[in-house]
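dumping this here so i dont lose it
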């Protein structure tokens, strides 16, 4: 289907040309995620490494960087993020979360307080777009430097960004570092040297396993990577490809992308400022509503209630104050029924219409997948990012459900397949929708060993 909008449009112009936000965002497929290959060995072996030994991940290409500098840097962030910045010192990191004036989620990132009045935010573009807009239109003594996702632009990153995780991650870093590792608290960082090259070391982890994240100038990537892989040789270190790397989210309970809440009337000036190329995300899955607000979530529904601080008068505060003690929905993990999953694959070997193909380990045909969740045929929420995880022998997804149905053990049904059997979607084969049983579990799904 031809479109009247173009990538030279603002987001507002593109929405008007397409007819609605969802007409703009549906049936677009998935853009390039990273420069990292899908697999280095086999995705199962790569998943096993973070549980059994140590995994090495290259995060250099799939996130955007926003550096905010100036005397008002922390004040600015206090006005536009839900976080508490009291006592936020150099050498500390935090999960940055931003909301729109109605308290709906716009985006998140990891914020690094690298130097006094100099902070680096690393994450998806949606939150960074909103912060850039408010720096440009606000009255703050700050400036910013911005690098879009290198995978999308083809440009080299400013920094390499690596991660090691797993039961042997600490030992590998001890062997790689020139000096004893600093005693870092979680989400704290310091500069260390590896083979004489300085790197910033953050105490971190993913998939519930302990680990470190480290970064420095992109020109020094090969020296650092080679040193880590050599140090990890005796520990059967494995490099994570793009597929296995993305599957860790369902264990950690972190939802990578949802539709940012930018299409309400009070966000019109922002949409006029925002280039559609910077702000466009694709939507897919069985959930099909004409109302874009049905795709919105709040920071509290995503499990960020523990970091929301009402000490600051931030954008969206009033709405979140009203919600925090009585949210309507909650994030959970859904464990999909194995027999029903086998029927989906088995449909390929039967006469008649088949079900939508499910590509393991991380089936996805849109940046923001939304599959409808039902109880007794009634809509109770949406299932989003999903993956098969070999270490659990489970297929899991993260979902946002009405609180009435979030008790662990609750049985729900997921509608699998695109609306109209994928008609009009160039990245999905023709198929027939089906229903898959699932059971509610907490999010995060596994034990947090970080």
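and the seq i came up w/
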């Amino acid at each position: 289907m031809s479109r009247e909008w173009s990538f030279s449009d603002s987001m507002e112009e593109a929405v008007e040309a397409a007819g609605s936000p969802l007409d703009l965002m549906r049936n677009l497929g998935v853009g390039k995620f990273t420069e990292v290959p899908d697999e280095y060995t086999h995705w199962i072996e790569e998943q096993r490494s973070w549980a059994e030994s140590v995994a090495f991940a290259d995060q250099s290409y799939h996130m955007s960087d926003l550096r905010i500098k100036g005397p008002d840097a922390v004040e600015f962030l206090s006005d536009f993020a839900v976080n508490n910045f009291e006592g936020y010192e150099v050498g500390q990191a935090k999960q940055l979360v931003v909301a729109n004036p109605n308290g709906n989620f716009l985006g998140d990132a990891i914020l690094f307080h690298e130097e006094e009045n100099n902070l680096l935010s690393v994450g998806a573009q949606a939150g960074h777009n909103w912060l850039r807009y408010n720096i440009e239109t606000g009255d703050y003594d700050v400036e910013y430097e911005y690098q879009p996702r290198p995978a999308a632009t083809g440009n080299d990153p400013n920094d390499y960004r690596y991660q090691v995780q797993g039961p042997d991650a600490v030992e590998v870093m001890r062997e790689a570092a020139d000096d004893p590792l600093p005693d870092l608290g979680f989400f704290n960082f310091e500069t260390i040297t590896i083979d004489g090259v300085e790197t910033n070391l953050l105490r971190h982890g993913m998939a519930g396993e302990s680990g470190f994240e480290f970064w420095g100038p992109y020109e020094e990537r090969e020296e650092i990577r080679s040193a880590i892989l050599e140090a990890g040789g005796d520990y059967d270190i494995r490099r994570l490809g793009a597929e296995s790397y993305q599957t860790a989210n369902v264990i950690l309970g972190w939802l990578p992308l949802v539709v940012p809440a930018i299409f309400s009337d009070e966000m019109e000036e922002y949409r006029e400022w925002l280039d559609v190329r910077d702000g466009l995300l694709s939507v897919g899955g069985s959930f099909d509503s004409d109302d874009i607000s049905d795709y919105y979530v709040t920071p509290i529904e995503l499990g960020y209630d523990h970091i929301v601080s009402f000490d600051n008068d931030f954008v969206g505060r009033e709405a979140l104050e009203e919600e925090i003690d009585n949210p309507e929905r909650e994030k959970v993990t859904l464990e999909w029924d194995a027999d029903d999953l086998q029927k989906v694959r088995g449909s390929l070997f039967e006469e008649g219409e088949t079900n939508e193909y499910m590509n393991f380990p991380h089936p996805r045909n849109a940046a923001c997948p939304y599959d409808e969740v039902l109880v007794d045929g009634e809509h109770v929420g949406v299932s989003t990012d999903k993956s098969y995880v070999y270490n659990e022998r489970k297929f899991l997804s993260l979902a946002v459900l009405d609180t009435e149905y979030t008790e662990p053990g609750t049985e729900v049904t997921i509608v699998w397949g695109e609306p109209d059997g994928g008609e009009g979607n160039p990245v999905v084969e023709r198929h027939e929708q089906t229903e898959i049983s699932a059971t509610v579990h907490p999010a995060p799904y596994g034990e947090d060993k970080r």
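The mean pLDDT is 96.
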